[in-house]
Model the fold of this input.
Amino acid sequence: MTVIDSHTHCFPDALAPRALSKLESNEALTPRCDGTRDGLLAVLDRDGVDQCFVLNIATNAHQQDKVNEFATQINRYQNRIYSFGSIHPDYPDIRGAAKQIKEAGLYGVKLHPDFMGYDIGDDKFTPIFAACCEYALPVVIHAGIDPTSRSHIHAKPEDVARILERFPSLRLCAAHFGDACDWEGVLHRLCGKNIWFDTGFSALGMSVSGVQKIIANHDIHKIMFGSDMPWEAPSETKRFLEQLSLSDEQKRLIYGENALRFISM
Ligand SMILES: [Zn+2]
Done:
């Protein structure tokens, strides 16, 4: 069985120390590696993970081209990395950016409303979702609470539900089980719908019983193992998931098969 971690991040070697220390002090998080591509892959080796999605994030429109350049550089590295590009809502040519991401062979688009400065329900994101539908690009959004913004949630389950209604053909993953701290909202607004979840950061914030309810009420084919490296190691997420009573078949889907299906459009 090929194990795929569907939620990781890494940075160019020269930028990694600064990127990590900034996030570390802002978010009070402790990185599990040095934030580089090779540092990430070393932890995946240690934790028995074969491949990963790297979810790159453009935190402003000016950075976007550079971020997507890096995403393209690391894509398919050692046949282990499925790299995602990013589109910032302020970027002047959103449709062109989606086309470029598709043509570069990247596997999807990552959006992080907290880091991008807009709520996910803001109309600024509408052209991005439309372009990703047009170019058949899967989208992963950060969903729910983020350590940088504990009082203002930028992507609530009800906001995500409205996106699904508006873009029924969109292949969308709400990271962190849709919202690490609001499993009831996820249960009522998202479970059973055409949405994917990843398990990112579950060990560090979620309740086992909440996650169990989400899994019991959602399509098991739409749940993907993801750690959120460098902020949580795959071995930590695995230990959390071991507390759920998953069958071998469910594990096979969650630890790899579902991720491959998510990116095959
Ligand atoms: Zn993440």
Summary: Residues 4-263 form a domain with the TIM Barrel fold (CATH 3.20.20.140).
